[in-house]
Structures are given as structure tokens and as C-alpha cells.
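Researcher: Following up on the earlier apo prediction. This time include the ligand. It's zinc ion, with the SMILES given after the sequence.
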Amino acid sequence: MEESLVSADLLDKLRCHLCNLYLSVFPIYINDKGNEFICGRCNVQHEDKYIRDGSYEDIAQYIIFPCAHSVNGCKQQMCPQKLALHELCCAFRKLDCPNRSYSDCVWKGSINKLRDHFENSHRALFINDGKFEINFNNSLREYLLFFTENELFLVKKEIDSINGIFSCSVKHVIQIEDSKKYNYSLRIETANQFFNFHECSKRTVSIANEEKISFSNEFINEQLSYPETIIINVIIDEMEIQKSQIANIPKIEDSNTNLAIFNELECPICYEYMLPPIFQCLSGHSICNICKPKIVFCSICKGNIKYTRNFTLENLVTQLSYPCKYSKVGCPIALKAGSIEQHQDLCEFGSYECPLAKMENCIKKLNKNEINRHIETEHESYLLKFNKVNVTLNMLNDGRYREYYIIKFDKKLFKLCFAYFDFTFFWAIQLIYPSEDYIKYQLEIDIIDNSGNNLRAYARRPCMPYTKTENFFEVKGTYIMFLYEQINDFLTDKTLSYQARVVNGTMM
Ligand SMILES: [Zn+2]
Ligand SMILES: [Zn+2]
Ligand SMILES: [Zn+2]
Ligand SMILES: [Zn+2]
Ligand SMILES: [Zn+2]
Ligand SMILES: [Zn+2]
Ligand SMILES: [Zn+2]
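Model: Understood. Below is the ligand-bound prediction.
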């Protein structure tokens, strides 16, 4: 056991004014009188009365605190940096009986007592072998408890007898910080040993989340020719992808890429890892800032989501390296919050709208490897074969005009936008598909003199990164422009001719 910096007496005084737990979870706030400390587990209510106590945190980071669940029997002690994560995963943390909303059970106890509770009070909901029977006679919802050697799983069983639907989801109840990630599948069996195997590879997540697998009564009848009894077998497997992911992620510090943390950091709505700012409901269930505007009530407890920031979690996550959200499809990048967002916007493993989606009503989602082929086969007419373009000025009649071309250069594709408005001609290019490579290229526009007077108008601008919007001409210096009157003398036969080229080079 680690030695603490401070005596037991002093430690006992380092308690939160609101929850009475140790001041071991940051940020720590102190009131204007200096006599009330609030810990990071609690919400500071009147923000004007409190300031963050950075100097306390500076010292307290070296103090070894007991786990907040020590009252329930946890013997762990550690410094605040590790403790915040431990308390999230601690096997001594309390929860309500999962069947509370489906029965009159009011049990509340620690995670490691859950198994005993099911054995004593919900014997019928305790499944040893992962198997349970279903029928479609009555609607019902209940949680079954299932455990493997080291792990606990809650199986949510739902029968909708009116529509003949069976749904099931499996929740992995984390008990240690570095617990593994699991897949589950369902096998539907009949009593007389004929069975079909229906595997759905779905991840299980911490208690908050669920990913349902549903079957209709009809489907089961078709697959198993009207069985008398239907047995569902839940099969849990360790998630293989996750292992290789760990190997790929550059290790900054072992605990930083810990998957159990990221299990806890999955937003219950979108399943993406939550990045700051992180919000929470009045009961403390967290939600990411992208989902927050979309919902009014917490998806877990149906409580109100106010603009409450979860500073404890935000503080904790600044220490983490997030795997890119495309890590499941092969991206090896892991970066701190604040940097990973930009990477994800440009990640080569992401899939993106077709660059001609709006013009062509194309609904294809494409990744980097598919995008060039898609354009060359599906939107071939946009490819600029000879780099000279003629624009008949009649087309500009109503004062606004815009068109797109695709330019191929250096085995890459570029989207050229040409527009006319406010008596001005505009050009800009973007490298198609997100990549940092855009800085290597520039656009050159040569206005061709159709008057025979050997005039020359020429401009060069850097290539822009790929954007989802069509706003090519909003930031000065990112596009080429010529006023109509500047190149009026070039125009004969009511035609503007220009050459568009992509060239190598960065502009400093
Ligand atoms: Zn507190
Ligand atoms: Zn603990
Ligand atoms: Zn119960
Ligand atoms: Zn979300
Ligand atoms: Zn909630
Ligand atoms: Zn990535
Ligand atoms: Zn397309």
C-alpha cells in the first residue's frame, strides 16, 4: 500500500462541503470566504461565489486518497489523477437494481453484490449458461444477469407480444479499469436440437448504453419452422479488433489508451467518444456536445439536460489520447483532445459525401480509396480534359453564375469552382477528399486574350482543403478574382476563355 503524504487526521479534513467525500476529484472549487471546498464530483451552484483552487490541486495531486467507495469496502488508495478513473470503474460503486423500473425491487448496492442480489431475489433472472427461453404470449421487459469467469453482463430482454418482436441488448458491467471489450451474438435454438445460428457482431458497452438485436416472431418461425419452445443463447466474445487497435495506437502512457476509459467515454446517444465540452443531466449522466443540442431529456434517466458542464470528466480527459473515430476501419492515429478533432475532420479513413452530391443528386458515401474511381466512372462529364474552358457570356445574363469541374493532377482530383457575381469572376480549387496534402498545390488561372492584342492576365492561389460546404469564396486570399472591367478587353465574341491548371508548390 502506498504511503500518504498527509496524516489520517488531516486527510479527514479534506472533505467536500456538499458530498462529504474526499477532495480527491478535481476541479476543486473554494468559496469567497475560503471555508467551503467543493469537489469535482459535485456541481458548483453559484459560480460567482466560487473560484477554482489551483494551489490546492497543485499540492493535492501528490496526496494518496482512499477511493470514494471505501465506505462500501474498496481498499484502493491512489493519487487524484488515477482516482477519478478508478472511481468510475470501481466494483464497489453503487447502483440501483437494474429491474427497479420493471418490478417493485428497491435494492441498491455495490456492483460486486449484484450477483448475490440476483441469486437471492431474482433467481429466475439469473442465467448461468447464457440461455433463456422466450415466448410471444405476453409483453415483458426485464434484465437478466449473466456472468463469465471475470465479467458481469446484464441482458435486457424485451418482448412485444402485440407486434411479435423480441429484442435483446447486452450491457457489460465494468468492474476494473482495464477490463476488455466484448462482442456478443445471439443463437436461437429449439428444444429438439435443431438450431440456426444468427450472429450479430455488436459491441457491448458500459451500463448506460445499449445496442439492440431484434427478431420478429415471423422470422424465427421461418428460420426454425414454427418451434414449440424458443431458446436464446447469448454468446460473449472478446473483441478482436480492439486488441489490434491497442497495438496500433502509439502509447504515450499505458493508462492513457486504456479501453475501459473509452468505454466510459462513449456518448450514450451517438457512441462517439466524448470530447470537451462534455455536458451532463441533473443526475450526472454525460452527453457529448454534438448530441446535446439535439435532445432535451437525458436518454438514460429522462432527466433534464441543462447547460451543466461535466468539469470532472473534462479534466480527466485532458490526460487521454483519443483513438481516431475511424480507428475501427484502420486509422492508427491517437491524439489529445483539442487535436484529434481536426485530425478526424481530415482523416483519410473517414467516408465523405460525393463532391458532386448537390449538383448530381449523388447520395454515395465514399472513402479515400473509392472517391477517385467514383468520379471517373459516375461523373466523367465533370472532368476537365483540356484545361481550356470557354464561357459564353450570355450565360451570365442574370448576373450570377457558377459551375464546377474536376481537374486531375498528380494522381489526385481537384474540384474547381468558377463563379460570376457582383460583376466579378471567381475561381478556387479544393483537393478532393480530406488530406493535409492540399498545401502542396496551387491553382493557376490564365485569361486567354481573344482580342488578338497579346494581353495577359494571370493569377495563382493556394489550393484549399476539402470542405462539405460550397463556400469557396468566403476567405480572402483563398480564391482568384478578376473584375469584369479588368478583363473586359479580353472578351470578344461574347466569350471568356481561360486556362485552369493545378501546379505543385506552396505559397509562403
Ligand atoms: Zn463533492
Ligand atoms: Zn474503489
Ligand atoms: Zn432487484
Ligand atoms: Zn454524442
Ligand atoms: Zn440522466
Ligand atoms: Zn484518423
Ligand atoms: Zn457521386
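Model: Residues 324, 326, 331, 333, 343, 347, 349 surround zinc ion (ligand 6) (CB under 6 Å).
Researcher: Noted. I'll compare it with the apo version next.
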